[in-house]
Amino acid sequence: MKLAVFGHCTIDRIAIESETHDQIGGSGCYCGITARKFGFDVQLVTRFGADFPRQYLDENQITYTGAESSLKTTRFAINVRGAERDLRLDNVCEPIEYMYVDGVDCHIASPICGEITYDTLAKIKKDSGFLLVDPQGFLRARDGHGNITLRDTEIDLDGVDAIKVNVDEAAHLVNSSGDEAMLALQRRGVNNVLLTDGTDISLLNGNRIYSITLPNKQVYDTTGIGDIFCAAFCCTMIKERDFLWALCFAGGAAQAALNSRHVGLQKIPRKGTIQTNASYFYNMIKFRTLATR
After folding, report:
1. DSSP type of residue 35
2. How far apart are CA 221 and CA 58, in angstroms?
3. CB 3.0–4.6 Å: which of 29, 40, 159, 219 could bond 35 by disulfide?
4. Which one, of 6, 242, 21, 20, lies nearest residue 131 by Cα?
5. At what angle do helices 167-174 and 178-187 cross, to 10 degrees?
6. What's this model's pTM, rounded to 2 decimal places?
7. Quick one: which of 43, 46, 26, 50 has its CA closest to 101?
8. CA angle 154, 35, 241 (to 5 degrees)
9. What is the chain's mean pLDDT, rounded?
10. At what angle do helices 271-282 and 243-260 cross, to 10 degrees?
11. What is the mean pLDDT of residues 187-195?
């Protein structure tokens, strides 16, 4: 099975408490390496410069044809404050051009700083059998100092199979929250709407909302957790064709990554650990049916 990931690879400077860590990251790395843990072949459609240590991708047998750029790699400075983060964008590599990838079972479109255009997203949707969108990079704006904020944004989501948003992103996409935000995204054409609110994770499928809660433990580095979550959800959907197992594996992957207390890519968990967590969550799923309107 094969996954294509559209999104920049990065070099991140992560500040946690009194320590600073220089790590490679970005949705391309986090999603790609997580998918490799699930046994998927991975094609990255990304851009990075000569300053990017690509050997880590090579060691994980991840393909990145045409990724090399004459510009330097996208760089973020990330200040982690518990479950919250402050982001500063210090450098941006060039945009990603669409590339057709043969034999792909699913796609993830996860821009981090506007590197995917709406035209590129439309081409991905046209060629994808299963597409998950993480819209973070469509929503982000930066000020003159590179500090990242969110802005109201409209995205054509028709033909998108799954979307992963947090409460702030949902508010800027559909100007609502909670159930209303999930329903608004569903009305735009998304089959599976994933909403994260701290440790609470909800999935709207049809007229039911399914929810799990991650154990309330102290977190360390949250960088890339959303990407790990998205890749685990996609890979499980393709393998199992069961959105409930996909929800549980995504939650299990996020929990295992947080429990590791590692920084950067080192927090990506083994599949066995993810599966143990997923089995726990599967027995703890809550659901409720929404009133017909």
Report:
1. H
2. 25
3. 40
4. 6
5. 50
6. 0.96
7. 43
8. 75
9. 95
10. 120
11. 97
Domain range for residue 155? 2-289
Structure tokens at 252: 């299990």
Residue 111 corresponds to which tokens in the numbers above? 């821009």
> How many helical (H) and strand (E) elements, i.e. helices and strands, does the chain have?
9, 15
Q: What is the DSSP letter of 137?
A: H
Q: Per-residue pLDDT averaged across 207-231, rounded?
A: 91
| The predicted structure's pLDDT at residue 292 | 63
Q: What angle do CA 245, 249, 214 make, to 5 degrees?
A: 110
**133, β-bridge pairs:** 109, 163
Specify the pLDDT at position 79. 93
Summarize pLDDT for 128-167 with one digit per residue, the tens. 999 999 999 999 999 999 999 999 999 999 999 999 999 9
- Provide the CATH number for the domain around residue 216: 3.40.1190.20
Question: Which helix (DSSP H) or strand (DSSP E) does residue 50 occupy?
Answer: none
Report the chain's terminal Cα–Cα distance, integer Å: 39
Q: Which two tokens stand for residue 241?
A: 């064709």
Domain count, the chain: 1
